[in-house]
What we know:
mainly alpha
Amino acid sequence: MNNIAQRSITGILFLIVIISAIIFSGYLFYLIFLAITFFGLYEFYNLLKINNIRTNYIWGIIIGFALFTSIFIESFNLIDNFSPIVVLPIIFVLFITELYKNNQVPFSCIAYSVLGVVYIALPISLLSSFYGFAGGTSHLLLGYFILIWCFDTFAYLTGITLGKHRLFERISPKKSWEGFAGGTIITLFSSFILSKIFIEISLLNWLVISIIVIVCGTYGDLVESMFKRSLNTKDSGVILPGHGGILDRFDAVFISSPFVYTYMVLITNYEL
């Protein structure tokens, strides 16, 4: 099987899984995105391990699981008066465990362990909250991913067809301004279409979300490229044949999700 066919099959299957998890929500969403959180953290800590950077990956994954679960519980109101703040004590257990290890750089280990949670688990966990911003429907979350896929796909297609001027050559030599422009145009147009389909979210809000996806998604890609380049690796993993790993596929989510979440909190609570 050639790389294009492999990439296409993997991409289609992956889309089906993600869309099904989003639309059916509930525990299917929980299981699928918890698995994504696990594999994302595993790839992150494994890349560091290969480069002889110590982490407490077990506690990092435990904290990531606890954070995802706590935000899911709050978002779906599974427990009355529940707050994700209950995860904080688990984080500080990570500090205590370093006291019992013969580690010359304990705070480096702690820092890298927590970095994995902040960079990967937190942005994915926030996706649960998107249901509440759209009246309990999957419309915001589904639209958010559609915008990401539109930008990624058309930035790639425009880039390989017309790309001449490098966007950020030092970090990602293949990305071009032409690709960025192509992805931007299609993504902005897609936000207009989404406003006609998911009418409970205004065109203005879809436009703002699309701009966040365009800007933060691009930076998310560049940040992940910077991370891999610093560790001298091409792909974060092999779980998605033809696409690399979870970090490669969710790089846009890691940076854009917190910004979309913050924007939705502001317009919901302060009627901006």
